[in-house]
Amino acid sequence: MSLFGLTILFALLIGFLADTLVVLVDLRAMPATPPDKVAGFIDAWVWEKSMAYARAKAKLDIVASGSKLGALLLWWFLGGFAWLDRLVASWRLGEIASAVLYVAILLLAFKIFSQPFKIYHTFVLEARFGFNRTSWNTFIDDRAKGLLLALVIGGPLLVTVLVCFYYWKTWAWLYCWLSATFFLILIQYIAPAVLMPLFNRYTPLPEGSLKQAITTYLDQAGVTFSGIFTVDGSRRSTRANAFVTGLGAQRRVVLYDTLLLRHPESEVVAVLAHEIGHLVLGHLRRVTAITIPYLGLMCALLSLAMQQPELHRDFFMERVTLHGGFVFFVLLAVPVDVVTGPLLKMVSRAHEFAADRFAVTTLERPAALASALKQLAAANLTLVNPHPWRVFLHHAHPAILARITAIEAFEDPGKG
Hints:
- By secondary structure, this protein is mostly helical.
- The protein has one domain (3-199, 281-415).
- 73% of the residues lie in helices and 4% in strands.
- It is built from 16 helices and four strands.
- The chain has a four-stranded mixed β-sheet.
- The model has no long low-confidence stretch (mean pLDDT 91).
């Protein structure tokens, strides 16, 4: 096996083992009763329930990721990639059409394999702890729409990538990079108005004191939006949230109906102020600025995978193909993600702290943000203080307790 194949195999195995170990260490380190710092907003019963929820999720995640890894390794070492290549080649569809079909079959197989775990998570685990409100009709409808979007959006992008490498080869990585960047920006424009309404109903927030409070805050922050909407998140879950989405004239404020039901007006504005902080501080632009060169790196890696006969032989392929190069690039990206993933999450956590600080310094009632986070943590059975290694490897958001501590220090510098 070549260095490429060994790197992929090592990254897959070590990644799974490391993730599992970190989760188990985190759960073992959690005290049986809430620490003094959280006892004020999470009582013993909620703490015990949150521990049970965390353990149940951890077991499911370990079983799901272990099953997916086992299935991949079996498929790999039993010659599944080569068998599917011979099958698709026997249909004589042409190189690009065969490549598209090959990738589509693998993606569809992965989706089908993943569904039992998603079904269990939604209808058993989430239901057991009182979170799930998704009906079977909604679940199936979401999967059907997701598949349709994959065909409509992912299909053209995949075809573009394959066409670039089929015709241009040497400069294909550059054309792929430009195409991927175009799609990245395009999605940010069309998602609010076209894609998101496919999955949820967005209703303009009715006139009233809440809308007036939000409008006043937005004016003070100096930002404009196409509208303020509520979304029917309660159709799927009891969890609450708010977000800002879209670019330019398509930008909109979105509030989950569950947020409006469970939180007073001041806390709703506070949660929204955090999201406005991301906008005003330019976090989306920064993430996009980081993502674009990262896409360039991935396209260069794809070009490398396309040109390596050794990599194809590692997967028992009898010939170098467009689809083999693409699929093996996806696997070759795993060791890259082992390095870049924690670094990108570190940037994201820094953005969260900065958005919290923006909210606290611009809100009329700064304490409302900490109050909202405390209620959200209790309602969502959140692990408020996970192990630092788990946060470093997996969390794009800081631990809730760390955020609350920082917010209270912002409000009263004497606490910092």
